[in-house]
Design brief:
alpha+beta, elongated
C-alpha cells in the first residue's frame, strides 16, 4: 500500500478500499473479454449499491490481495464480493452491485458476464 492511500495514522483511508475493489472488478471483467468488449456491445455497468466491512487495518507497506467473485447474478445486475487480505489475514470484505445500462436504461446483462459468472 502506497503513502497516497493512507490517512494520518498510516492506515488506508476508508474511501480508498473502493478503488481496490474496482481494480479487482476490472481484472475479473478482463478475464471475460474486458471493459472494451462490454462497451463495443453497447453496454455499460453503473454502481447501484456498495458497502465495506472492515476487519483489520490496511497499513502503509502492506501487500494487499483482493479476490473478486460474483455473489448474485440477476437479469440486469451483478453483485460482486471483494475479499481483501494482507499476508493471508482478512482486512475487508466489500460488495458492489453493478447494473447494466444501454442508452441510459437498465438492460439485460451481456452474455460475456452471465455465462462466466
Amino acid at each position: 500500500m502506497r503513502p497516497r492511500h493512507c490517512d494520518a495514522q498510516a492506515m488506508m483511508h476508508a474511501a480508498r478500499y473502493y478503488e481496490y475493489f474496482e481494480d479487482a472488478f476490472l481484472d475479473w471483467l478482463g478475464a471475460r473479454g474486458g471493459y472494451d468488449r462490454l462497451r463495443r456491445e453497447g453496454a455499460d455497468l453503473v454502481v447501484k449499491a456498495s458497502g465495506c466491512e472492515h476487519h483489520a487495518p490496511a497499513r502503509l507497506g502492506d501487500v494487499l490481495a483482493v479476490e473478486s467473485a460474483p455473489a448474485r447474478v440477476g437479469t440486469t445486475s451483478i453483485t460482486m464480493t471483494f475479499t481483501m487480505r494482507s499476508e493471508g489475514d482478512l482486512v475487508a470484505v466489500g460488495t458492489i452491485t453493478y447494473v447494466c445500462v444501454r442508452d441510459g436504461r437498465a438492460a439485460p446483462l451481456p452474455d460475456m458476464i452471465r455465462e462466466f459468472a
